[in-house]
Specification:
Elements (H helix, E strand, L loop, with lengths): L2 E2 L14 H10 L4 E7 L17 H9 L6 E8 L6 H10 L2 E4 L3 E3 L5 E3 L7 H16 L5 E2 L13 H17 L3 E4 H6 L6 H9 L4 E4 L12 H11 L4 E6 L2 E5 L4
Parallel strand pairs: 1-2, 2-3, 3-4, 4-7, 8-9
Antiparallel strand pairs: 5-6, 10-11
Helix pairs in contact: 4-5, 5-7
Bound molecules: zinc ion (2 copies).
One zinc ion binds next to loops.
Amino acid sequence: MRYNLHTHSFYCGHGSGRIDEYAEEAQRNGFEVLGFSEHCPFPDGLLSRSRMPYSSMAQYEADVRNERRPFDILLGYEVDYFRRFDGYYESLRNRVDYLIGGTHFIFRPDGTMSSVFDGNLSASDLSIYADTTIKAMESGFFSFYAHPDAFLSSYQFNSEARAVSIAIIEASIGLSIPLEINGNGYLRKRGYPSREFWELAAERDVPAILSSDAHRTQDLAAPFSGLREFAADLGISILCPSSLHPLSFRKEQGK
Ligand SMILES: [Zn+2]
Ligand SMILES: [Zn+2]
């Protein structure tokens, strides 16, 4: 099944392409499902540099809802999880089709923060990453978890990284929340998807899905053949949607 549930656009401010241009690209590539998952803004402007203004949400949602194609289009958000916003996530989830979790930042007890992607994370940052990610998965808001191995874009794989990887993988299995093998990291060779992480995941038969995490229309379909090869090579069986409302997954047949 050809589908992608992790798609950005010009709305996020660091991507390009309109909603209809992604839909056109999906149609050209024979997709059966296209899900939009812009970085979710917060009512108080938290993390506003990496996402659309809160005031643009209605326009984004209308754009996606108004896009009609001979295949399914879903409306979603990719969300950084903070427990104090539980009420907000609840109302979002009632309004859109699905939410993806993703840990893009770590917040330290001393009040400082770092991007997971360019952060020079320390070993103690790593445990914050694991804690943030696992609490997000436990919240029950998310249909799957994006780039769970993103911390390896700025951290050398060692025994701490191994322990964090296993903790996240076991949470995914225990909670039945699929982990994503991420096409944006794959295309940009950013250190994820990490072979070490996904070897551990494969050994434990983690539920896994592929997404492109496209921020440009030309990246919507581009990573999938490579991602499939990556997964097949490690013996990871891939999920595809079994229902869209609500979104749920099943193993792909004969793969
Ligand atoms: Zn982004
Ligand atoms: Zn992300």
